[in-house]
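So, does this match?
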Amino acid sequence: MLSPGRHDIAASHIPLLVRVFDISKGDVLEVGTGYYSTLILHWLASLTERKLVSYENHKRWYRKAVQWESALHQIVLCQNWDIADFDNQHWGMAFVDHSPGYRRPREVARLANLAEYIVIHDTQPRIGEAYQFSQTWGQFKYCYHYTKIVPCTTVVSNFHELLDVI
C-alpha cells in the first residue's frame, strides 16, 4: 500500500500506453524493453495482429525480451542508438523508455514525423529537465502530460489531437 501523499508507482506508463495502443492503428515501436511494457505490448499486438518491433541496447534486458519474439514481434539488439534503423518507416505508435535517459529526446525527435503517437515515460519536471524534454515539446502540435502518477508519462503527436487520450 502507498503511504499517504506518495504516488511513485512502478509501471505508471501503462494506462496511457494501453489507451494509445487502443486508439492507434498500424505498426508499433518500443524503444527500450521492460518487465511491463514489453509483455503488455506483445499481448496487445498479438491479439490485434499488429506488428511490434522492440529495440534494446542492454544485453541483459535483450535476453529477457527475446523470449517474446514471434512472427508479429521482432526484438532488436541495438549497439548504437544513432544508427538504429527504426526511423525508416511510419509507425502507428511508439513507446520511448530506453537508456540512457538523456537519449530519449533524440529518439523522440527522430520519430516526430514518423509516429502517429509517441508515448514517453519519465517526463516529470525533475527528470524531464535532466533529459532536456522542454526542448522536445515544441516539436509537436499536440502534447498531453499525465501527471497524476509519478513517474509521469507524456503523449505527443503531430498527426492527431489528443482528445481521445485525455
